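WARN retry 2 of 3 for item q-0093 after timeout on previous attempt; input resubmitted unchanged.
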Amino acid sequence: MKILNVVGARPNFMKIAPLMAEYRRRGGIEAILVHTGQHYDQAMSRLFFGELEIPEPDLNLEVGSGSHAAQTAEIMKRFEPVVIDHKPDVVVVVGDVNSTIACGLVAAKLGIKLAHVEAGLRSFDRSMPEEINRILTDSISDLLFCTEQSGIDNLLREGVPEHKMHLVGNVMIDTLLKNQAKAQQSAILDRLSLSGRRYAALTLHRPANVDDPEVFGRILDALDVICTDMPVIFPVHPRTRARLDGTAAGQRVRRMAQLVLIEPLGYLDFLRLMSSASVVLTDSGGIQEETTILNVPCLTLRENTERPVTVSYGSNQIVGHDYEQITLGYRKVVNATDGGSRIPPLWDGRAAQRIVDILHRSK
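OK item q-0093 returned
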């Protein structure tokens, strides 16, 4: 069986790693890995591939950055001859980045079976480019692999035939559980002079949060309060760094004594940083899932989440970008006495096995 697997951006690496490992374990599968180069930092990509034991991509399309339309079109143009040349039995796309929909469209138009890993998630906010990518990819996929029951429910409401969808668990959690012990050996806390449970971790990159000075200002108001209690460790996304350079927000951030700006971290260092934090503040989807498994309180700096199981099962709170809600959520976290999280169904480290079982049966 020949399976063409697509990654395009850093969040995809954690999702493809357990699948590539499962293909190797099974045998009898020719697994081709294509990196579109949608987001490409050579040093960080090499670090992630090494840490997660992902084989080097068979092909790198080297698309690079661009507007959503230009990038999607360029990925399609470069991916089409790959599919024609390799004639795979199935194309597997993961997540919700531009590479996901672009390569999915190519496969569907060429009549190749398309499988979407992490299907059915919905924020119900179409101002998010990722939401458009999710909806469109699901609508053209033949196999829809869902991480949580909300994914199944959403697809049913959208009229997707039930036989196409499969609740399999979460490949992100496969990766976390496999690497949890290894991450504990990371020296990141020593390098930053941190002690466990006495700091917060922050990630912030979504345009809705960092492009609007007023919104960004309200988040910084709340961080001012948190920084009076404990250090806030902030690995700065390249997009966010560009919004800080030479701006009033950037000047303000650099005056906050306990807001510690660092370069983006590799997977193992960041997993270690999260696992020992008092609280994680984020606008990322995947981090909501990871903190659920780690039983670390998470404050999501968005008005919605496409991963509602992290709220119903985990310790995730949706606090938006309102100063009052963020600080209220923070106070609730630091004064909490209960354990918080439960483990969502099938988040047991075996999602990749279930997916490959179904792919094999579907040939």
